[in-house]
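Morning!

This is the sequence you dropped in the shared folder:
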Amino acid sequence: MEEYEDVIKKRFNDSSFDYRAKAFREYLKSPLRTFKESPTVKDYVEISSEELESMLIESDISEKEDPQFSPDSQVRILDDRIVSVSDDAKKKGVLILDYLSAVSADNKEIEPFLNSYFGSEKEEYIINAAWKNGFVIYVPEGIRGLTINIESFSDASQSIGSKNVIICGDDSSVEINDVYRSFGNGQGTHGKTVYLYVGKRSTLKYNYLQEKESEVLDIAFVKSFLSEFANFTFYHVNRGASRVLFSNTSYMEGEGSNFKTYGVSYSDASQKFDIRDSSFQTGVASSADIKVRGVVKGKSLTIHRGNIDIEEKSIKSTGFYDSRILLLSKDGYANSKPGLIIRNNNTKSKHASAISSLDREQVFYLRSRGISEAVARSMLTEGFLLANLENSSSEILIDKVHAYSEEITRERQP
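The structure's back. Tokens below.
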């Protein structure tokens, strides 16, 4: 422990040291799970201590590839470092910094948000201790109709941790597209935290896409903190990486705060996905609506977990969780674990989950109209997933789901 603190003090001689050291202590104190999650497995997505701690190691400074960024990307990130920011993204007084610059800057508007959250799980603690860089976006109050497109590429062969913060000031309206990809080959551990602070009466729409190389381990913790009458809508799509731990939790502290999540996951081959979406409600008359849909192919595994947690003082609140998984392979595995934690009797809440295969009658109907079985399966799968994105204005998410579903068309039928 002392040796590690000496290392980070030498490497990062800035205000982040105490934050990192405390996060690392929490990581060390977090107990290893001794019980099995099911009669057959200890963990649905196995992550070793060695893989987590590989994020502490300094990355190789070898020459990097030149990934092909999308022409629409305004904020471009290579590994954990911002390489360019377009003028469009910085208009209206928006502040965009890499995280190391932000913690070293004397900026009273963003300083309270930078070192305010350590985490709640072992994997999150180690990311908050090991992050090498990341980004900070600050949107001043009163900014309306702003869209920011972020695109990140990470070296698949390297293990890396990044810490990202998005701050949406009071009375603002913002949409953010945040895309994560990788380049090269390798079995690196890619960990990231994304903390979003939504000010009073503000509206934030956050579109997240992860499609990394097939051997990467991807760990993501997305935490949102909602003020009074804040509205946060989150669309997330996970497709890439060999193993994925994706955790999304909204802390609804403000009265009348509103949280909506629409998630899509698509696992194939031997991928393993652990998708977690939850709300923690303390504000009066808060509202949470979580809907996640997944497709399982090949020998892959997907589990959806979710808790609606409405605390005692969060009266007149509502919380709904709905998980649906489409199992397209006899060798695949799907599970769903919804939960309700309701601490007052002046609320409305419910949860639901379903795991099923494609409806044979629907497939038969399409085939009777001259459509091949592969195309019919593709159409039904796409409709199943896009039902969760029908209100999204993100073309990249919709186009990606269409491309994923088309893969079924190209499969050889038995």
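Headline: The CA atoms of residues 52 and 126 lie 7 Å apart.

More detail when I'm at my desk.
O.
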